[in-house]
Amino acid sequence: xxxxxxxxxxxxxxxxxxxxxxxxxxxxxxxxxxxxxxxxxxxxxxxxxxxxxxxxxxxxxxxxxxxxxxxxxxxxxxxxxxxxxxxxxxxxxxxxxxxxxxxxxxxxxxxxxxxxxxxxxxxxxxxxxxxxxxxxxxxxxxxxxxxxxxxxxxxxxxxxxxxxxxxxxxxxxxxxxxxxxxxxxxxxxxxxxxxxxxxxxxxxxxxxxxxxxxxxxxxxxxxxxxxxxxxxxxxxxxxxxxxxxxxxxxxxxxxxxxxxxxxxxxxxxxxxxxxxxxxxxxxxxxxxxxxxxxxxxxxxxxxxxxxxxxxxxxxxxxxxxxxxxxxxx
Length: 329
Prior knowledge:
With 329 residues, the protein is an alpha+beta fold. It contains 12 helices and 10 strands. It has 2 domains: 5-234, Glutamine synthetase/guanido kinase, catalytic domain (Creatine Kinase, Chain A, domain 2, 2-Layer Sandwich), CATH 3.30.590; 243-328, no CATH class. Helices cover 46% and strands 17% of the residues. The strands form 2 sheets. It has an 8-stranded antiparallel sheet. The mean pLDDT is 94.
């Protein structure tokens, strides 16, 4: 399934029992929550604790803050107001804990490929670590209490990042989206609600959190993902027989390997085409992991962060082309 599923994410929302939700918290209250969560991780006996770095968002360079969003490590809302907000981030950036976003705690785990069970297991361990030292707001009937009612219950959002070029080209995604909503799932752009899909990247996630267990939600997502993967693979078989599609793939690789200036949107489109060529066997000297990494590394703020300086739009386009040439040889 790694030909279609790029990554998996599991996110849990939690709140502390004796504090108002972040939207009603004073600055002092926010600082208290930050310290309680930080201490809960730091003073635990888990090996996970040693791997986290603590970041006060008010001290983060704006470029890096946007880059964190581009990498899906934090939400756009989280960086919109940095006051009284902090982040715990693992060294490999697979685990992150947003403090004082919409809820006091938003912990998430990101893994490669389709690995919902593994991602949930890690998230559950981190949740247990925090629960041992914090008193979470919990109701016997409603489950975990969250600021937004749509997160009540498990407080869990599980999602998979899908590459769906064939279904997108056949215009089947909108039809599929309508059917998914009836099954308690939603499909959106790569960065979630309100974002347009680019590079044929889509995020499939659960919507129902109340009256269903975490395990049931995970199983439902796994089953629907398997069906979507099968549909995409069937559509790819038909699509990749086309001379026009094979020509588009070959031209895309040529442009990426030799272009000197390339925009963000063009890069994602071309990388999507090349990824299709790799997984279909047309391109044999490029690895899908390289393409998947590039789809994040070519983002504007991430480019500037990795370059270590502010880049103008044109400089970013030049730097982006250079990075792609180096990665694709």
